[in-house]
Amino acid sequence: MIFSAMTRILIRTFAAGFYKVHAGLLLTLFVTLFINFFFTNVLNQTHLNQEQILLNNLKLVLTSVSNPVAMGVLFLIWLGYTLKSCQYVAAQLLLIQYQFLFYSTNAMSLRKQFQTWFVVQTVISIPILLLGIFAVGVGFSFDYYFIPLIIPFYLLILISGSAIFYTKLLNNLSEKTATSSIPELIKNLPKPLYSLFFYQIVYRFKLTYGITKVISTILIIGMYALFRDHPDDIRIAGISILAVIAAHSVLIYESNEFERSYLSFSRNFPLTRTVLYFQFAALYGLMILPEIILIFCINLPSIAAMVSVLGLGTALLFRTILYWQNQKMGVYLKTVFGLFILSALAVMFGGLLWLIVIYMVVSVVLFNRNYYKLTE
Description:
77% of the residues lie in helices and 0% in strands. By secondary structure, it is an all-alpha fold. It has 2 domains: 5-179; 187-370, no CATH class.
């Protein structure tokens, strides 16, 4: 298909940029989802015939096209992905280097603008489109028709809504005025040093925070729904909290960028490394507090406590890695994905307690050795 010059420019600028910036997040989310979507296996299939093996391998996708609740979870994931892409493109459009698009695209008719952005969003949405096409094909093959017929319309609504949003945003750029997005209610609240990033979340990362919490909730509930026959298995809780911390990796990275940009002066404060480390622990403990409460509601207190410490230790490790090696977001998220896979394997083979000790010790060492080094 031959696209117009403007469409090709927008694809290279925004679609390619989105994949580059969110490579790690996409790997974490979609590799896991693809593996389970295309091939869900059990340890011993010798007692199953070929048809039963096929049904077992496609168990997750068949549930998604036959169960309205599972469909709703899948639709929420796709909605979160779309909102994340809209947030990225909207933020890029407000940058000075892309202001020329206000004049270039507005020279086209509204219909042409919509068509152009529709193509761009379609390219950005390729991962969820592939999942949708596969789900529809499997659904029709196994005589499920209602939900597979809904999926294309839902994806069309997501892409069309995004295209309309981009079109309206570009046509109204000149009308934007600088206004504070911080609610009046929290302006007078106390602001200890460790809590300042929460105000940055309110100011700039509300959507990212909201999407992260939705994904975390889905991950925890989804894990226990898939393994509901073993609700007290600590490995399920351990992998769930690891997935939750991986989902928070973007916010953890942004907290480092916030400190580098706005809080570099704080290194001159008369605070010991021990106090500073516990302030970091307080920050990330509060950040994952909703997930910890949910885990305590689902698990035995002893299991929930151990898993909560694992989650905090993993978050601190992901944070202190950035002191040791100041990475670009794409490289950092790939590192996080690799650590997530290794950690999940360790939990599966009964190494949860060892993982807690190792992550806590390594995070303390990295913090003590690198906190006062210049991070240019």
